[in-house]
Amino acid sequence: xxxxxxxxxxxxxxxxxxxxxxxxxxxxxxxxxxxxxxxxxxxxxxxxxxxxxxxxxxxxxxxxxxxxxxxxxxxxxxxxxxxxxxxxxxxxxxxxxxxxxxxxxxxxxxxxxxxxxxxxxxxxxxxxxxxxxxxxxxxxxxxxxxxxxxxxxxxxxxxxxxxxxxxxxxxxxxxxxxxxxxxxxxxxxxxxxxxxxxxxxxxxxxxxxxxxxxxxxxxxxxxxxxxxxxxxxxxxxxxxxxxxxxxxxxxxxxxxxxxxx
Length: 261
Ligand SMILES: [Zn+2]
Fold this sequence. Notes:
The chain has 261 residues and is an alpha/beta fold. The chain has 9 helices and 8 strands. It has an 8-stranded mixed β-sheet, with helices on both faces. The chain binds zinc ion. This is Adenylyltransferase and sulfurtransferase.
């Protein structure tokens, strides 16, 4: 008798995981019992959501307020031409259910704000940041750090992308590395940026992989490190990161006690 609550359909579906020593039925069961919140159903959120659904994460939350536009489709592969004008969360739910009907997909057609962010992140085991503006990055970072929820942060621009894993209390947070006063922190949220769709695919896939590793407790996480991908030169490099003792959210005498954006 197995101690695991995996149906014969699930055993077949996840066979290529189950035969891996690092996963097995025990790991597959852990994934089934896990919950992940994906913030943003766009260029990064698409590969993240697809892989997490394929891999069998039992509960996937997706928050996005936006509707699908034609110019989204070169990178936002959750959505199709026939879905233009619909809400991204609705199209995401349909695509993910078609791939794997066993999962709970919870959608929130909303923006993350100071009054809903903490309540939402606390319902999940880990949060994956797939947003495209700095105000939301700081807001999500602060909510996750304050509530001790791990966060996988990433960004893409042109032919480059970067990823870091934030484990609150154990290493640097987003604000430690990119203080709000820095040049990057001031880039306008509304400014349109170009990005090669496939680069978002690579970076989102890395985010999903780190989340799966975290949930399974396997391997070495991209923790206290920033991984930078340069697609034009086909190169990856890792930069060691250190927490800033004067960080306003995770530092010794943190000055941010209430979230604002
Ligand atoms: Zn910090």
